[in-house]
Amino acid sequence: MNATFRQLRLFLALADTGSVTSAARLMHVTQPTASMQLKELSNSIGLPLFEVISKTVHLTPVGVELAKTARLMTNEWESFEQLIANMKGFKKGSLKIAVVSTAKYFIPKLLGSFCHKYPDVDIALEVLNRDGVIRRLEQNMDDMYIMSMPPSHIEIEDEIFMPNPLVMIADKHHLLSNVSSINLDELKTQRFILREIGSGTRMATNLHFKKNRFKPDIRLELGSNEAIKKAVAGGLGLGIMSMHALDYNYIQNELSILDVKDFPIHSNWHIVTAKGKKLSPIAKIFHDHMISEDKKSWVV
């Protein structure tokens, strides 16, 4: 097989974008050139790599395996480029991170302080729900992943780097806002607004409720912290969310954190990578940057 590195990068772009046109644009070539290169790659391997159904690209089993191999090769080459840049005294390269949606409340600040030190680093940040982040982890698409509930079905490297306390919130004028030491049993008549099933916050909440033999009366399940904050502030029920998702304005003007026994729920933020993955020089520097930050400063 005589596949060129350019062809492999083009095929990887196809796998990531799902479109020949988009892959061509990403690789700065014309669409006919991209089609020709992909055809030559397929002929070189001797098996079809993808098929187009209803204008959507679907990788064949061989294509899926080739995408995995091409990604490993690309990651190794980028690490080599970063290593050479570092040896020349430069700190440049790319950093790819995928985080669950709640992490968007603190990751930009970490990235901002990092980019202030290393302005020549290009950042690619994906903010997704937990399932989306895990799909990218399964395909080894990023340097690292930030989440609160790492998966158990994948071999991973997992490192705790910051606490993620989950608190119970109510609207500012709720009858329980100024009550101390509330027992969970006293909340049986309350309606709850929780994150969707499968989110890290919901998983930690369900485990906590199960441990305390409490069954919440769920009114709504919502897919974003912002939606939950607005629903709770509107008096629709009690909510549970990460302290990182609460800002000063909400706490002062619209919401109150309830004083419930066994709350906050203990949770942590994790840095996750695929098992055996070697961090690129830039990713290693960012990892150390996160670890070195004063963790207390990230808790509201």
Account of the 3D structure:
This protein has 300 residues and is of the alpha/beta class. The protein has three domains: 1-89, Arc Repressor Mutant, subunit A; 91-163 and 269-298, D-Maltodextrin-Binding Protein, domain 2 (3-Layer(aba) Sandwich), CATH 3.40.190; 166-266, D-Maltodextrin-Binding Protein, domain 2. Helix content is 41%, strand content 23%. The chain has ten helices and twelve strands. The chain has helices spanning 5-17, 20-27, 31-45, 61-87, 107-117, 130-138, 200-211, 225-233, 248-253, 281-292; strands at 50-53, 56-59, 93-100, 121-128, 144-147, 156-163, 166-171, 191-195, 217-222, 238-242, 255-257, 268-274. The strands form three sheets. Strands 4-3-5-12-6 form a five-stranded mixed sheet. A five-stranded mixed sheet has the order 9-8-10-7-11, with helices on both faces. β8, α7 (200-211) and β9 form a beta-alpha-beta unit. α1 (5-17) crosses α4 (61-87) and α2 crosses α3 (31-45). The chain starts with a helix and ends in an 8-residue tail after the last helix. The model has no long low-confidence stretch (mean pLDDT 89).
CATH topology of the largest domain: D-Maltodextrin-Binding Protein, domain 2
CATH class of the largest domain: Alpha Beta
Provide the residue-averaged pLDDT.
89
H/E element order:
HHHEEHEHEHEEEEHEHEHEEH
Total strands: 12
**Spatial strand arrangement across the major sheet:** 4-3-5-12-6
Main sheet characteristics: 5 strands, mixed
Strand content: 15-25%
Could you write a compact summary of the structure shown?
The protein has 300 residues and is of the alpha/beta class.
